[in-house]
Design goal:
Layout: H1 3-11, E1 16-18, H2 20-28, E2 33-38, H3 46-60, E3 64-69, H4 71-76, H5 82-98, E4 106-109, H6 117-129, H7 132-138, H8 152-166, E5 171-175, H9 179-188, E6 198-202, H10 228-236, H11 249-258, E7 265-267, E8 277-279, H12 281-290, H13 295-309, H14 311-319
Parallel strand pairs: 2-3, 2-5, 3-4, 5-6
Antiparallel strand pairs: 1-6, 7-8
The chain binds one RNA strand through α13.
Length: about 325
RNA sequence: CCCGCCUUAGCUCAAUUUGGCAGAGCGUUGGACUGUAGAUCCAAAUGUUGCUGGUUCAAGUCCGGCAGGCGGGACCA
């Protein structure tokens, strides 16, 4: 596959790449490193899965994949004691493997390197380069909002920037909520004589309740190891306004999971409502916006799809 | 180190001057209405009132101690 084709593949489904020219250079490298950091989370859900799938795709294209299990970051973000978080990290590692990343994937626990002298030295250097306002702003979409924000909130982004240098990352992949931290890295790493990675941002999934963001703290997600019945119930309870595409979580699941995976979505429908349909992405959008496709039929189709799509994951989770 | 204020349901907060059955909104759950969800309407559930000792027939409320949070002051050779 030529480089142009690889670039197109990587760009597919992303919101932005900063920037494409640099990524092209990275693609000429032998084993360029792509990384994503995740705060250990009680459940790995479809939102996480968007980035994991992108990592998997890049792995297939020859990238070395490093996943940071960001235990200290979670700790700084008030997600629990470091012991609890490390338990969760183990579970998350299993989830990521279940999603199909190969054995060549490096899983790195943050605390294994984030206290080393070279690392803290870089954090301190970054601390002298970053204003408090800038650091706080970079955390707007990432940190828990507290009436009593902690110093931890401004250490967090500095560490994330230092991670990229310590893990020798060529490409940093993350959801759009990471953008401000990533840009901070692009800006400040060169100032401490480190190379800034290419930054790639993927879209955020709306919560099943229609909330801005699917998030484990809000319970508005499909977890990758949810039971079949749970998937059905959750999809059925989901926000899904008739004819509306924008901000519709069920349509988003179709866009981000069905169609990258298969050309058509089978909609099983009783005869009295028009009988079965097989729709391409474009057709789905048209049919749904026109009102010809009822939300309930779409929901049933999506639930069926997800149950099948996540079957391998459930198997892996129970057998490993 | 000193002083003041705060801590009540998952969340935001009520519970007056003067101690008298711990409440509301939001959220959650369930029903009604929709061939989904939401919106709307109806209904329900939920408490170690931060912890602890005391006063009292009776304490969220008064007194003491402790913890956590917030603000201020002091110290600055």
């Amino acid at each position: 596959m030529d480089i142009k084709a690889k670039l197109d593949l990587i760009e597919k489904g992303t919101l932005e790449m900063i920037n494409t020219e640099e990524l092209e250079e990275k693609l000429k490298k032998e084993k360029a490193v792509a990384y994503t950091g995740y705060e250990p989370s009680g459940k790995i859900h479809l939102g996480h899965t968007i980035t994991v799938m992108k990592l998997k795709q890049m792995q297939d294209l020859g990238f070395k994949i490093k996943i940071l299990l960001a235990d200290y970051h979670a700790y700084l973000n008030g997600k629990g004691t470091i012991e609890e978080i490390e338990e969760t990290a183990k579970y998350n590692e299993k989830c990521f493997k279940a999603l199909g990343l190969s054995d060549d994937t490096d899983f790195v626990l943050g605390s294994t390197f984030q206290t080393k002298p070279e690392y803290t030295d870089e954090v301190y250097k970054l601390a002298t380069l970053t204003t408090i306002v800038r650091a706080k702003r970079s955390m707007d979409q990432v940190s828990r909002h507290s009436e009593h924000p902690k110093v931890a909130n401004v250490i967090y982004p500095l560490m994330q920037v230092a991670d990229m240098s310590s893990l020798e990352v060529d490409v940093a992949l993350g959801g759009m909520e990471q953008r401000k931290i990533q840009v901070l890295a692009r800006e400040n790493l060169p100032k401490i004589d480190k190379e800034a990675p290419v930054c790639i941002h993927t879209p955020l999934l709306h919560g099943l309740d229609g909330d801005e963001k699917m998030s484990s703290s809000k319970g508005n997600f499909i977890a990758i190891d949810d039971e079949e019945s749970e998937i059905k119930t959750k999809i059925n309870k989901s926000f899904c306004p008739m004819k509306e595409i924008e901000g519709n979580p069920i349509i988003e699941i179709a866009t981000h999971f069905v169609f990258p995976n298969q050309a058509k979505l089978l909609i099983e429908r009783p005869e009295k409502f028009g009988g079965n349909l097989e729709l391409s992405e474009k057709e789905l959008i048209e049919t749904y916006s026109s009102g010809e496709l009822h939300p309930m039929d779409l929901k049933n189709a999506i639930a069926t799809f997800l149950i099948d799509y996540l079957a391998k994951v459930r198997d892996y989770m129970t057998n490993n």
